[in-house]
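#struct-pred
JK: can someone run the complex with adenosine-5'-diphosphate? inputs below
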Amino acid sequence: MGTMILKNINKIYPNGVQAVYDFNMEIDEGEFIVLVGPSGCGKSTTLRMIAGLEEITSGLFEIDQVMINNKAPKDRDIAMVFQNYALYSHMSVYHNMAFSLVLRKENSDKIHERVMWAADVLGLTPYLNRRPAHLSGGQRQRVALGRAIVRNPKIFLLDEPLSNLDAKLRGSMRKELKTLHNRLGKTMIYVTHDQIEALTLADRIVIMNEGYIQQIGTPYEVYHDPSNLFVANFIGTPPMNSFTTTLTTNGELIIGKNKVDIKAHKDYNKLVDKGYLGKEIIIGIRPEHINVEKTEDINQTMISTIDLYELYGADALIHFKIDEKNVIAKTKDVENKHPKDLITYSFDVDYIYFFDKETEMRIDG
Ligand code: ADP
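RT: done, structure tokens with the ligand placed:
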């Protein structure tokens, strides 16, 4: 139970702002879906329409083949966890978790059983008598999750639930959430602006921008197979390098003072078929697919100097310029590189992505 269909969903607020355009998606029971995108892209609005906190302007929303559009939030069998977990400060952890069941007039044995179960799942058993003020941030967030799971809903909605926590705690809560999801097997829809959270948590990611879905895919797909330049730049840290260049009629890209032959690339035939030879095109390449070597030979063609060198331990980022454009390479060879060093660079040609200069859509085979 918990299969959802969202068909041609639009949201126009009373002031005329259209926050969501034509949202289409089917979500299977038990999936962990993450909606991700920059601030204002419409992800909270989408979540709030699913919760029933915002009206759906047009479109169809079904859960298990029942139309939900006009059902009140309390009749949707959905529980929501917010960023500001809004615990009742005068109540103990136990009573915070029991509260929604008390409101629903559940029998007290059942309430006790559900709260003790949730406390056990979330590691909160030792803290049941504490007030929220005497808990750490992570523990409070667990109580907020506990309030949702005691109700045993079909679907969980989570709106930036970890963003009030510090980086270290966020990392450990991510693991807990993933474990919780595996244990409960319930559909979860999670909103965040943080693409790392999206990549690490999701079964499938929905990337949104300006109210439109940009791509839906597994973390692997959106990273390795972005459908447009927005997704390519949004997913991955540091982002994919991208710049406009010319594809010659001989099947070579002009990069710096050099020409890079791409005739063996898997997408080359598509570029030819679609008439991109001799045209300007946007190319993208991830930092891990640019190779950088120190050199002393100033006569090489693909040459630059290091602007900035950032060591992250096992790997390092090298910032440099190609034709005045800032580029970042990631290297595992972390020794002996310094700003102002002369370098040669090369691309792993198979890993170049091609985008239309006007539409910014991927041109792939
Ligand atoms: P996100 O969660 O991705 O940051 P939102 O869904 O909150 O984005 O907002 C999407 C767009 O809708 C934004 O342009 C925002 O200003 C607008 N918006 C959000 N809530 C309202 C509202 N109650 N009335 C009018 N416009 C709104």
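RT: quick notes.
DSSP finds nine helices and 20 strands in the chain.
Residues 13, 15, 17, 19, 37, 39-45 surround adenosine-5'-diphosphate (CB under 6 Å).
JK: thanks, will look after standup
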